[in-house]
Amino acid sequence: MEIESRISPDTVTRQIDLGHTINFSLRSAGMGSLYIAMWEDGVFREYSDLGRRATGRLGVI
């Protein structure tokens, strides 16, 4: 898994504990934004990368 260097240490540790191999990105501009939408246990969940000022969220059901 390639991740940005600004990811919190506890998140990196958790990913390693889950068996992922971590490589830190050398790209200073970052790797883009993250948007996730999923249905889990009867609940619609959505997430986005709030660390990016130019991005927003819009929930559509």
3D architecture notes:
The chain has 61 residues and is an alpha+beta fold. It has one domain. 15% of the residues lie in helices and 26% in strands. It contains 1 helix and 4 strands. Strand 3 and strand 4 form a beta hairpin. The radius of gyration is 14 Å and the shape is extended. The mean pLDDT is 74.
Write the layout of secondary structure elements.
Blueprint: E1 2-3, H1 9-17, E2 23-24, E3 35-40, E4 43-48
Parallel strand pairs: 1-2
Antiparallel strand pairs: 3-4
Rg for CA atoms: 14 Å
Count of beta strands: 4
How many structural units, i.e. domains? Answer: 1
How would a textbook summarize the main sheet? 2 strands, parallel
In which range does the helix fraction lie? 10-25%
The shape, in one word, is extended
Structural class: alpha+beta
Can you list the strand order of the major beta sheet? 1-2
Chain-averaged pLDDT: 74
Helices and strands, in order, run as EHEEE
Continuous helix count: 1
Uncertain stretches of 5 or more adjacent residues:
none
